[in-house]
Amino acid sequence: MQAFLDVFDIYLLEAVINGILLGGVLALLALGLNLIFGVIDVTWICYAELVMIGMYGMYFMVQYYGVSYFVAAPLTIMLVAVLGAALHYLVIAPLLTAPPINQLLATGGVLFVLQSFATVAFGIDFRNLGIRLPVLAFGDMNFSYARLLSFAAALVGMVAVYLFMTRTFTGTAIRAISQDRQIMALMGVDTKRIYLITSALGGALAGLAACLLVLQYDVHPFVGLSFGPITFLICVLGGLGNFIGGFIAAFVFAEIISLGGLFSDLEWGYVLAFAFFIVMMFIRPAGLLARRR
Amino acid sequence: MMGQGRLAAWGVGLAALVALPFVYRDPYHLHILVLILIWSFAYTSWSMMGRFGLVSLGHGGFMGIGAYVTALLWNHAGLSPWIGIPISMAAAGALAMIVGYPCFRFRITGHYFVLVTLALSGIVLQVITATRDYTGGSLGYTPNRASGNRLLALQFDDKTTWYLIALAVWLFGIVVWHWVDRSMARYALEAISEDEDAAAAAGVDVTAEKLKITLLSALMTALAGAIYCQYQMFITPDTVSGIAVSLQMVFAAIVGGLFVSLGPTVGAIITILLAETLRIGFGTKAVGWDNLVYGVLLVLFIIFLPKGILGSLLDRLKLQRKVPRAHEQKAVQVARPGA
C-alpha cells in the first residue's frame, strides 16, 4: 500500500509539473489572441491555423532545406507575422465597421482556407521534425527537454511582449487603443498602423508558438483543431483581452488537462477542462478576473 | 401573409418535388437530393437562431448528440429509432438549456456566446472520441442492420423512401421557420438582437425568448443528426459533430441568406453541389479543394454580400415593388455585445 502511494505521488507530481510546462505554451497562444482581441476587438477563430502554417514552415525549412532550427525559427516567426498582418489587411480591415460577429465568421472562413490549403499543398500525412530531444530524468520523474525548452521560450516571449508594451511608444499606443478605440484616433495616433502592427505581433506570437509546438507534436492540416478551441476557452475564461487573466487561466486549464489525463485518457482531461469552463461561465461569466462594472 | 400567387407557387413546387422520385430514378442524383434536403433542414435549424444574432457554433454538438444517441440506443439497448430519436432530441434540448440558461441569464452575447458554444461542440466531440469503447471513437460508428421490421428500425434500402422522408423533414423545417417568422416571438427576438436592454425595458422576457428559440433550434438540429445517421448508416465524430460541422452550418446559411426561409436551402444546394462537382471532377486530388473554395467564398460573402445570394436576389426584386422591412435593410445585423 505504501509503495503504491509513493508511485502515485511521483506520477502526480510529474503530472503537475508537466501541466505547468504545457501551461507556458498555452499562455503564449492565449497572449497572442488576447492581444488581437484587446486592441482590435476581433476574435481570430483561425489563430491556431496560423500556428499550423508556422509549424509547416518550420518543418519544410528544417527537413527540406536543411536550415538549422535556430535560423528557421526567426524566419518562421517573421512568416507568420506577415501572415497575421495580411489577414488583418485583407479580411479584418474591410469589416472593421461591420458587426463583430461578421469579423469572427470571416476569420472562420480563413480557417477553412488555411486548413484546406495545407491539405492541398502538403497532404494529410503526419509529419515531424525528426529532432529527438533527450528526456531529463529528475529523481524518478521524466520531463522532455522539448517541453522545458518550450516553457522557457514561452516565458521569454511573454516577457519580451510585456517590455514592448510597457517601454516603447508603440506599445503604449497599443495599450491606449485597447482602452478607448475612438479617442486615440483624435489624439493623433494612426490607428490603422497600430492595428497592422498589433496583428503582426499577434502573428509573431503564433509563429513563436509554432516553433515550440513543432518540437513536441506532429504537423498535419488539422493540428490547429487540437489546441485551437482550448486557446479560445482560455481567453474567455481569463476575460477576453485580459492578459493576466489569460495567463492564469492557461495554467489552470493545463493543470486540469494534465491531471485529468493522469487519472484517465487524455480526452477526458479535455472533457474535464471543457466542463470546468462551462461551470465557470455560471460563476464568473465575464472571466476570472472580471472587473465589476 | 402569403399571397395567393406565392401559395400556388409553393403548392406546384412541392407537388413537383414529391412526384420527382417516381419519374426520375437515378440513385446517385436522388442520393445527392436526400443529402441536400437533410442538410438544408440542419442549416434551417441553425438559421432560426442565427437570424436573431444568436450565432452558435454549438450546433455541431447537438447534431452529434442526435446521431450518436439514436444509434447507441439502437445498438446497445435495442430501442427503435422511433423512441431513440425523441430521446436524443430531448438530450440535445437538455444540453441546450443547461448551456443556454446561464448564457442568457448572465448576458453572455456576441464573441462570448460564440466561444461558449464553441466549447460545447468541442465537449461533444471529445466525449464521443473518449468513449471509444462504445462509440468507436474517430473510426466511426454503424447502427446494426435490422433483422426484422424495417419500418420499426427506420432503415430503408431504396432511395425513394428516404427522399420522401427527407422531403417531409425539410418541409417541416420550412413550416417551423414560417411559424416563428409570423409569431410574436420574432418581434421580441428582433428587438433583443437590436438592443437587449431596450427590449427588456419594453417588457420582453429576454432570457425566456432566447431560451425558447435555442431549444427549438437544438431539437431540430438533433433530429437532423438522427435522420442523417439513419440514412447514411455510418457516422464519424467529424461528419456529425465538432467545430467544422458548426462552421459549415454558419457558412451555408450565410451564403444562402440568413433572413429568408429558403436561404439555408440554397446554401445547402450550393455547398453540396460544389463539393460533389469537385469530388467527381478531380477525384481524390480534390481533397481539400472544396473547403478551400468554401472558405474563400465565406470571406467574400461576409465582406461583399452579407445577406446571402437568395436574400440579395429577393431584395433586388422587392425593391421595385415595396420598401423592405426595416430589419432587412440592414446587413447581417447580429449581436452587438453591450454597445
Describe the structure.
The complex is a heterodimer of chains A (293) and B (339). By secondary structure, chain A is mostly helical. Chain A has one domain. Chain A is built from eleven helices and two strands; from the N terminus they run ααααββααααααα. In chain A, strands 1-2 form a two-stranded antiparallel ribbon. In chain A, α1 packs across α9 and α2 (47-63) packs across α8 (191-216). The mean pLDDT of chain A is 82. With 339 residues, chain B is mainly alpha-helical. Chain B has a domain at 25-240. In chain B, 75% of the residues lie in helices and 0% in strands. Chain B contains 17 helices and no strands. Chain B has helices at 4-23, 27-50, 59-77, 81-105, 110-130, 132-135, 150-153, 159-182, 184-194, 196-201, 206-232, 237-240, 243-256, 263-282, 289-304, 308-319, 326-329. Chain B is globular, with a radius of gyration of 20 Å. Chains A and B meet through α4, α9 and α11 of A and α4, α5, α13 and α15 of B. Chain A: Belongs to the binding-protein-dependent transport system permease family. LivHM subfamily. Chain A: Its main location: membrane.
Topology of this protein?
The complex is a heterodimer of chains A (293) and B (339).
Chain A lengths: L1 H39 L6 H17 L5 H24 L7 H23 L12 E4 L2 E4 H23 L1 H11 L1 H6 L4 H26 L6 H16 L4 H21 L2 H18 L10
Antiparallel strand pairs in A: 1-2
Helix pairs in contact in A: 1-5, 1-8, 1-9, 1-10, 2-3, 2-4, 2-8, 2-9, 3-8, 5-6, 5-8, 6-8, 9-10, 10-11
Chain B lengths: L3 H20 L3 H24 L8 H19 L3 H25 L4 H21 L1 H4 L14 H4 L5 H24 L1 H11 L1 H6 L4 H27 L4 H4 L2 H14 L6 H20 L6 H16 L3 H12 L6 H4 L10
Helix pairs in contact in B: 1-8, 2-8, 2-11, 2-13, 2-14, 3-4, 3-5, 3-11, 4-11, 8-11, 9-11, 13-14, 13-16, 14-15
Keywords (chain B): Cell membrane, Membrane, Transmembrane, Transmembrane helix
Protein name (chain B): Amino acid/amide ABC transporter membrane protein 2, HAAT family
GO molecular function (chain B): branched-chain amino acid transmembrane transporter activity
